[in-house]
Task: structure prediction
Amino acid sequence: MPVFLTMCRSLVVGILCVFALSLSAQVPASRATVLPPLPNPEWLAQLIQSSPVLRQHTVGVCLADAATGQQVFGLNEDRYFTPASTMKLFSLYAGLHLLPDSLPSLHYIVRPDTLLFWGTGDPTLLHGDVPSARAFNFLLHRPEKLVYAPVPCVNAYGPGWTWDDYNYYFQPERGPFPIYGHTVRFYARAGQPTPRVVPQFFKPLTQPAPAGLPNPEHDHVHRQELENRFLVFPFTNNWVDETPFRTSSALLLQLLQDTLRRPIVPAVLRLRPQDSVRVLRGLAVDSLYRRMLRVSDNFLAEQLLLMCSSALRPDSLNTARVIQVMRRRYLQDLPDAPRWVDGSGLSRLNLVTPRTLVALLFKLHQEVPEPRLFDLLAAGGRQGTLRRTTYRDARGPWLWGKTGTLTNNHNLCGYVRTKSGRIVAFSFMNNNHVAETSTIRKEMERILIQVHERL
Result:
């Protein structure tokens, strides 16, 4: 009996060793290599607190080793800040957990002679920057009668958005079935009396602005607040501009029929027990993530959360549902619970601490292969909102991140590759500043260059 027990014990130990070796083999080398702990950069606090640019507003900074999550520096890191577009990292995290590798373009049901379809929030249909023809071709070539059923959706504007930004490209309306990115594009050429309008549906609704109409913001185009009528101010130079249009189910049907050149009948969505709801897949998700993060596209971020909602429940689109699920399932371990109300960061109701953003960056770095993650982000001196910065050297960028800017607020969070070869996750938040954003940006560059060189 003792011999038998000894043999069993040896067998169990052997199995455990093989299992442990197999697990270690699955850990990427970049994750398995752990460098000695980073020293506390006391010089960084002095650098920030002695800055005449930064001392006039609220500043929060947090740094952590991206390999271990260990915090190595904090200044007001536990205080809540208005995050602006750094909230798009939360939207990215939601998409990574709730969407597959391709976007859901639309939901549909096939009945004997009818194709009943409705929106998932996919923003790429005839979008000017991230275009997809998948849903267009699908609807164009189906032999059945087309029936569109609008689904319950969030309000066109998010909570806490600035109402008088309705005229600007960065604040299109949200919706269940976007088309043309919910914007009208105007292409002006010097010497031509009027710009080219895309889609042409809005050409008859566009006219020259009356002489003497005030234009304090020096806009190219002004849309009347409550209707789709566009006034173009006199111009002598070439320009391209986008102006959001007011959305409705009736307008969507007009635009779809005008584009597809076939009738579409409206209906109320009533799912039957025998209905089999299908999903038409569209672009690869990284096509949307990359554009959303690099240039900080608000519309794509908002629609991303709606697509996540459609994955949870196909018959309604609700941003709050996604936020609730993400909090409960995936974000309970954050150091401070974020106040998260929209997908883009347009709302000033969003509140996040610097150390929570760094914790989210750590989670992303652990869950997403580093080459893919860095490719999605803006890169210093190379791409996106960081293209015109000095975060690079002869070998290329050494900082990848997400900017966040609202009036009097400018933030940056992301990853720094230091000269010692480490990857440091950081958040650098500036709220309630009165200096020019360009001044704040240059001071952040000066300090982050020191982080790159000295850590």
Notes: The chain has twelve helices and 19 strands. Residues 63 and 426 are 4 Å apart (CA to CA).
